[in-house]
Design brief:
The protein has 158 residues and is an alpha/beta fold. The protein has one domain. Helices cover 20% and strands 28% of the residues. The protein contains three helices and nine strands, in the order E-H-E-E-E-E-E-H-H-E-E-E. Strands 1-9-8-7-6-2-3 form a seven-stranded mixed sheet. A two-stranded antiparallel sheet has the order 4-5. The radius of gyration is 17 Å and the shape is globular. The two termini are 17 Å apart.
Amino acid sequence: MQGYYLKKEDLNKFIQFLKRKFDVIGPVKRDLYRYEILNDELPVYNHTTYSAKKFFLPPVETLYIYEKNKINAKIKVKPRVMFIHRCDANALLIIDNLYLKDHKDPYYKKRRKNTILIDWPCIPDKNCFCKSMDLVDYFDLRFIDNGKRYFVEYHSKN
């Protein structure tokens, strides 16, 4: 296992550093636990009610713009980092197989290629079924909670 240690009190500094170049997404408490772009909060361990899918397959998106008799179909996606629970990363792997294998979706592909996945610890609840699934490692970085600090393991999901 290759990686380094990050003190828990330095997590906010790490996230602020990431925000200089990336949108940083993680599980947060709103009305329910869901994935959102982090503002001033830190990602939570709680199991999320909603998946991270909306960041890869938005319900509404502009595919192109018609201006001055020209079609502009440029796909613009800001690079982002997502703190994601292992079960949701595995769900993303299934979606990747649908949208990136035989019939590649250029919009989905651009979002995935511009997203770094950080495997974030989760506290399973009574509705969690992760232990019954054959989950795989699908992340770029993994944060392992060691009490006062995180062990940050690096790994490529590709």
